[in-house]
Amino acid sequence: MTWQTGGSLRLTVFVGENDTWHHRPLYSEIVHRAHAAGLAGASVFRGIEGFGASSVVHTSRLLSLSEDLPVAVVIVDTEERVRAFLPQLDGLVAEGLVTLDRCEVVRFTTGDAETSGRENGGRENGGTENGGTAKGTGGADRR
Asked: Tens digits of per-residue pLDDT, 19-65?
């Protein structure tokens, strides 16, 4: 997959990990819709502490409050593709926060270790000295 270096949009959807859509985790539904829409990638990040509109602080430090921790679904693609995806979230995210941020993509890999190893001077994991970078936003492709 080729990627044009330059301006893009980062879509972040903040929901609770217990939020569901038709008996399926809401974050999973968002990832699968992004995949079906052909977006470059989506990653889900589980928070260890946070609060939202309810003002109830959820934390992983206390067993009684460790339910429904915050979850962020992050998608990065061209502005046109991200904005075309936004209607997919209508009716899907009843309680949550959806944000858009302009960002600059400086590297996008297909996840092909052989190809990315050659592009980075033979070093794996993005060619950095401290263990590399995540390969794109490909959380949906993790095995």
From this structure: 999 999 999 999 999 999 999 999 999 988 877 777 677 666 656 55
Residue spans of beta strands (DSSP E) within 34-125: 42-46, 49-50, 58-59, 70-77, 97-105
Handedness of CA 112, 115, 119, 121 (dihedral sign): positive
Non-local CB neighbours of 55 within 8 Å, separated by 6+ positions: none
Q: For residue 46, what is the enclosing H or E element?
A: strand 42-46
In one-letter notation, the amino acid at residue 100 is L
**pLDDT, tens digit (0-9, with 9 covering 90-100), for 78-105:** 999 999 999 999 989 988 899 999 998 8
> Among all chains, which residue has been given the structure tokens 């302009």?
102
Strand-pair category, 20-21 with 24-25:
antiparallel
The CA distance from 127 to 59, in Å, is 35
- Give Cα separations from 30 to 7, 74, 121 (angstroms): 23, 10, 36
Q: Are strands 58-59 and 70-77 parallel, antiparallel or unpaired?
A: unpaired
Tokens encoding 70: 């915050």
Which residues, in sequence order, are bridge partners of residue 44?
Answer: 73
